[in-house]
TrEMBL record:
Keyword Nucleotide-binding: yes
Subcellular location: Cell membrane
Single GO term (MF): ATP binding
Domain ABC transporter per the UniProt entry, residue ranges: 6-240
Alphabetically ordered keywords of this record: ATP-binding, Cell membrane, Membrane, Nucleotide-binding, Translocase, Transport
Family named by the database record: Belongs to the ABC transporter superfamily.
PROSITE patterns on file: ABC_TRANSPORTER_1, ABC_TRANSPORTER_2
Membrane spanning stretches: none
Organism superkingdom: Bacteria
Official protein name in the record: Cobalt transporter ATP-binding subunit
Topological relation to the membrane, as annotated: Peripheral membrane protein
CDD domains: ABC_cobalt_CbiO_domain1
Length: 279
């Protein structure tokens, strides 16, 4: 039996008055509990896919399915109950006077009873390590903290899928690291399906699988390791590779025989140390 929870089947989308399709005949599935990263340069179609997955757009052709529901006018709210989105700018997501008020906002809109609401807010803030900031004003938080609160607001709704739509692009390196660590821990605890739409290739390393979009089509697909082994092709379509991949390329050009192109710094250091000891 298939474990696919998200499915795009020959999906295309064309914006009104646009000369060409933003997404062209794209098909893929995502298993429950999987972390899929979708990468591509501006205009590649990746953000359009994010909107299609959350029902902010409806496909021009093809089918989008989340869980048991095919996306359509009659199922849009069923799908949105299952899918939570964290957007690019955390400041645009806050509506509450305090952190706990903001996390509770979505629950209030869903008519969740007060006692259950308090329990979910506390748990969500604890999940993202922001419990001690519950009574703080969101505007006084750092960028990374704001995004963690935004994630808590999504978690409190208990979705099956979380979509990160360029959620770390406006953060400094420390903020990005905070948010990615939060997502990693949350996924391990809750077995939530994560779909990250990003151009940050260092973020992609954490995913189980990667889809590379180019000119509206699914250009490459594989594990992060398989994708970044195609460094030349990635650069050809206007994308880079993580620093560790570039470093390994330079080491090999310098005549250092690496046995494995790992994406983990620790594994690379272990290889280099072993080579040093065996000299």
């Amino acid at each position: 039996m298939s474990n696919d929870f998200v499915k795009l089947d020959h999906v295309s989308y064309k914006y009104e008055d646009a000369p060409d399709f933003a997404v062209k005949d794209v098909s893929f599935t995502v298993e429950k509990g999987e972390w899929l990263a979708i990468v591509g340069h501006n205009g590649s179609g990746k953000s359009t896919i994010a909107k299609l997955l959350n029902g902010l757009l409806f496909p021009t052709d093809g089918m989008v399915k989340i869980g048991h529901f095919k996306l359509g006018e009659k199922t849009i709210w069923d799908i949105r109950k299952q899918v939570g989105m964290v957007f690019q700018n955390p400041d645009n997501q806050f509506v509450g006077a305090t952190v706990q008020d903001d996390v509770a906002f979505g629950l209030e809109n869903h008519g969740v009873p007060h006692e259950l609401m308090v329990e979910r807010v506390d748990r969500a803030l604890d999940e993202v390590g922001m419990q001690k900031y519950a009574l703080h004003e969101p505007s006084r938080l750092s960028g990374g903290q704001k995004q963690r609160v935004a994630i808590a607001g999504v978690l409190a709704l208990q979705p099956d899928v979380i979509i990160l739509d360029e959620a770390t692009s406006m953060l400094d390196p420390r903020g990005r690291a905070e948010v990615m660590e939060t997502i990693r821990v949350m996924r391990e605890r809750e077995a939530i399906t994560v779909i990250s739409i990003t151009h940050d290739l260092d973020e992609v390393v954490l995913a189980d699988r990667v889809i590379v979009m180019n000119q509206g089509t699914r250009h490459l697909e594989g594990t992060p390791k398989e994708i970044f082994e195609q460094a030349q092709e990635m650069r050809r379509i206007g994308l880079g590779v993580p620093f560790i991949t570039s470093l390994q390329e330079k080491l090999e050009l310098a005549g250092i025989p690496l046995t494995d192109r790992s994406l983990m710094e620790g594994a690379l250091m272990e290889q280099l140390w072993t080579l040093h000891l065996n000299k």
